[in-house]
């Protein structure tokens, strides 16, 4: 059974990509799960984190990225090749197997505009919304978890991610501005789920870049845990650490501990991953086949 989990937030820079990449690597490396990560952000950070620039440039030139999925939806073509686009065993940590990636493209910026125009032209807010799900349908069942890194907006590409998601997590830095839009995201996803007849379950808010010496961070975490409009702040969290920032750079590592940091960061990531898996197993419905 597969759980499809989207990482989402209206803010950039809150650690969405870092959480998605790290949790995926820990699911595969520490818990032996088969994981597919899908990079939906035109900033291609998740993609280059795992593949490096050179490999991405080649894939992109050949059209072997997600941009082709959406170009097909707009142009009514079928250029997308799943076998050529799916990148196997992309973890840069030695010994970590079972982590695959669907790469993104800078071309998504332009394609997203065309997708929006198509929705307006057809006067259909759901036009093209199942393009991603249809494109990946043949492989989804091969994984225990599919993690989808969304761009920081509710545009048509994000909706494609949500349309195939069973659940979602919202990473946030625990400060006033970063947490501001969380209720809006929850309401929006709830409404979108109703529109497409699919329950998209909130797994929880993930605290990122926590600074133990910041009173604002400590107060915000307390407030979030108390606030009834925020249903669930996950117990797992990530502290701010240079080693976690450095993990974004493409390069090989001897172990997850070496990559993410041995001063508590490895344990934080492992615990965060475990709590997300527990929430997913607990809350997500049996996979909603065909919906
Ligand atoms: N726990 C952390 N400690 C230190 N730096 C972090 C942490 N999480 C993320 N970062 C850094 O913060 C920046 C934004 O993170 P990123 O994951 O790209 O956010 P988003 O995907 O939400 O835009 C990146 O430079 C990343 O390396
Ligand atoms: Mg990102």
UniProtKB/TrEMBL annotation:
Give the originating organism. Answer: Williamsia phyllosphaerae
**InterPro entries linked:** AAA_dom, DNA_Partitioning_ATPase, P-loop_NTPase
Identify the residues that the record assigns to the AAA domain, covering every copy.
3-196
Superkingdom of the source? Answer: Bacteria
Q: What is this protein called?
A: AAA domain-containing protein
């Amino acid at each position: 059974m597969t759980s499809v989990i989207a990482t989402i937030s209206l803010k950039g820079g809150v650690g969405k990509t870092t959480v998605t990449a790290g949790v995926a690597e820990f699911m595969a490396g520490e818990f032996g799960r088969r994981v597919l990560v899908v990079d939906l952000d035109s900033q291609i950070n998740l993609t280059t984190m795992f593949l490096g620039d050179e490999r991405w440039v080649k894939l992109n030139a050949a059209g072997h990225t997600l941009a082709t999925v959406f170009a097909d939806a707009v142009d009514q073509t079928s250029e997308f090749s799943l076998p050529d686009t799916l990148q196997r065993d992309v973890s840069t940590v030695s010994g970590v197997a079972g982590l695959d990636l669907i790469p993104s493209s800078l071309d998504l910026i332009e394609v997203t505009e065309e997708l929006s125009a198509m929705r307006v032209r057809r006067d259909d807010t759901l036009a093209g919304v199942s393009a991603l799900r249809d494109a990946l349908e043949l492989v989804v069942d091969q994984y225990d978890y599919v993690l989808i890194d969304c761009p920081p907006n509710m545009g048509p590409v994000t909706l494609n991610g949500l349309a195939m998601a069973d659940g979602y997590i919202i990473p946030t830095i625990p400060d006033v501005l970063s947490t501001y839009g969380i209720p809006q995201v929850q309401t929006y996803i709830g409404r979108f789920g109703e529109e497409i007849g699919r329950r998209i379950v909130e797994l929880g808010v993930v605290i990122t870049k926590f600074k133990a010496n910041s009173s604002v961070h400590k107060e915000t975490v307390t407030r979030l845990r108390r606030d009834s409009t925020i249903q669930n702040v996950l117990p797992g969290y990530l502290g701010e650490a240079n080693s976690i920032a450095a993990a974004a750079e493409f390069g090989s590592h001897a172990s997850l501990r070496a990559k993410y940091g041995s001063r508590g960061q490895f344990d934080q990531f492992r615990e965060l991953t475990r709590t997300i898996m527990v929430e997913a197993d607990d809350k997500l419905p049996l996979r909603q086949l065909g919906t």
